[in-house]
Amino acid sequence: MHRVVITEGDEPVSEILIAGGLLSDAAGYLPQREDRRQVAILTQPSVRSLADSVAESILDGGVAASVIPLPDGEAAKTLSVIEDVALALNRLGLTRADTVFGIGGGATTDTAGFVAATYLRGVECVLAPTTLLGAVDAAVGGKTGVNVGGKNLVGAFRHPSRVLVDIDVLESLPMDLRRQGTAEALKTGFVGDPDLVELYREHGIDAPLDEVVGRAIGVKARVVSEDFREGGLRAVLNYGHTAGHAVEVAAGISHGEAVAIGMVAAGAVGERTVGFDRRVEQEELIASLGLPTRSPNVHAGEIERLMALDKKRDTGGIRFVVLEDFGIPRVVHPDAATVRASLHAIGID
């Protein structure tokens, strides 16, 4: 079993366990708490049977467990869904000694994390991501959020106490979901682990998942341990997200596809601002993994509007994470001409 710990100062605050078969004995991998009386499991329709089996495992361990269904995908990430879940927790009589357990993809773990961060002003959260994207990104690092006119504009910073990454579950994913998660895994390689980039160059989309997940989570854990609330360093994890989130919202495509496109845009910004000379190499690698490098047909003005609204904006304006080289990220505030050039690079004129 691979174990990664996120710290604040010298204090461990979140533990990620990576191994096969973790969810077959979920009760055994819950954090030890003598006062826990029940677990509320939030899940999505596509993994309901898995959530039911986890609930049975917890019940067999002597703790009550209830499954609360969420809408699939981004439909789960609304304030109205949060209210519905809070009312369900009221009916269960959930207390601060109890646990919210999110089982599903990134939208499910985002929603479960936000519910846990805000219900009773904070209850324990455990997450089990069932997609590669959720495992390497959404479930790790304590960012929670829902969508209000833009991606993740309402949320909270609060770590899950434990994240269970079951490699057997990830190995069973259909190729389209594996490919979407590959975009986020590759992103961590670009900003913090060139060896992960080389792993994808060598093996392509079939790069071994245990090594991919361990390396990607290792990068994120190191960054988050130094900068939990994104005061500086953590911003590098947004590589590809400034343009990517805007394209995702405007075009209605998946998050992974949008991040892939956004990294191409960021490569163009990096080339113009910090002399990034591997833009073409980066784009070719992204394309070789079956990920898109061009945006669907959307209006440039709408993309610029959404980028200006994005939560990554600051007093300096639109903020882009760029690369000087693989593994050497920087944050810049490009001028309007550079932003337009980045959109041109992804087919938006």
Structural description of this entry:
The radius of gyration is 20 Å and the shape is globular. A hairpin with a 7-residue loop joins strand 7 and strand 8. It has two domains: 2-173, Rossmann fold (3-Layer(aba) Sandwich); 176-345, Dehydroquinate synthase-like, alpha domain (Up-down Bundle). It has 14 helices and eleven strands. Helices cover 46% and strands 18% of the residues. By secondary structure, it is α/β, with parallel strands linked by helices.
Strand content: 15-25%
Mean pLDDT: 95
Low-confidence stretches: none
Tell me the domain tally. Answer: 2
Intertermini distance:
48 Å
What is the share of helical residues?
A: 40-55%
Task: Identify the CATH architecture of the largest domain.
Answer: 3-Layer(aba) Sandwich
- Biggest sheet layout: 7 strands, mixed
Radius of gyration: 20 Å
- Can you list the strand order of the major beta sheet? 1-2-9-6-5-3-4
Structural class: alpha/beta
CATH fold label of the largest domain: Rossmann fold
The topology string of helices and strands comes to: EEHEHEHEHEHEEEHHHHHHHHEEH
The CATH first-level class of the largest domain comes to Alpha Beta
Secondary-structure topology with pairs:
Elements: E1 2-8, E2 11-19, H1 26-29, E3 38-43, H2 48-60, E4 64-69, H3 79-92, E5 99-104, H4 106-118, E6 124-129, H5 132-138, E7 143-146, E8 154-157, E9 162-166, H6 167-171, H7 175-192, H8 194-203, H9 209-226, H10 241-251, H11 255-273, H12 279-288, H13 300-309, E10 320-325, E11 328-332, H14 336-345
Parallel strand pairs: 2-9, 3-4, 3-5, 5-6, 6-9
Antiparallel strand pairs: 1-2, 7-8, 10-11
Helix pairs in contact: 4-5, 5-7, 5-9, 7-8, 7-9, 7-11, 10-11, 10-13, 11-12, 11-14
